[in-house]
């Protein structure tokens, strides 16, 4: 039976979306990944582009709010930003909670290419964390 992993960040627009997409693409034999936010916004176009660069399509993802997952039996909740961790220090029914703070690529400034550099760095940090912690 697959373990259910929920990645949470404030807006569910970049970090949690990239984590969900990567986990489902790389480890779908063991995990079912989800993502949500404390607020609903949109999936950031540069997050979609950063994932496309590594062959993962998250263009069909949508921003989701936490309450959508309250009835789902979640094995692991991973908060990926400090404000989500502060807003959601516990999750109903979660068997385990972990906090890992990744920088917010949505706050990057500069040219689109300068912003993409930040999105790529954060994407790669998320991938490294997942590969080191969830590959079991």
UniProtKB/TrEMBL annotation:
<keyword id="KW-0059">Arsenical resistance</keyword>
<feature type="domain" description="Phosphotyrosine protein phosphatase I">
    <location>
        <begin position="3"/>
        <end position="136"/>
    </location>
</feature>
<dbReference type="InterPro" id="IPR036196">
    <property type="entry name" value="Ptyr_pPase_sf"/>
</dbReference>
<dbReference type="Pfam" id="PF01451">
    <property type="entry name" value="LMWPc"/>
</dbReference>
<protein>
    <submittedName>
        <fullName>Low molecular weight phosphatase family protein</fullName>
    </submittedName>
</protein>
<dbReference type="InterPro" id="IPR023485">
    <property type="entry name" value="Ptyr_pPase"/>
</dbReference>
<dbReference type="GO" id="GO:0046685">
    <property type="term" value="P:response to arsenic-containing substance"/>
</dbReference>
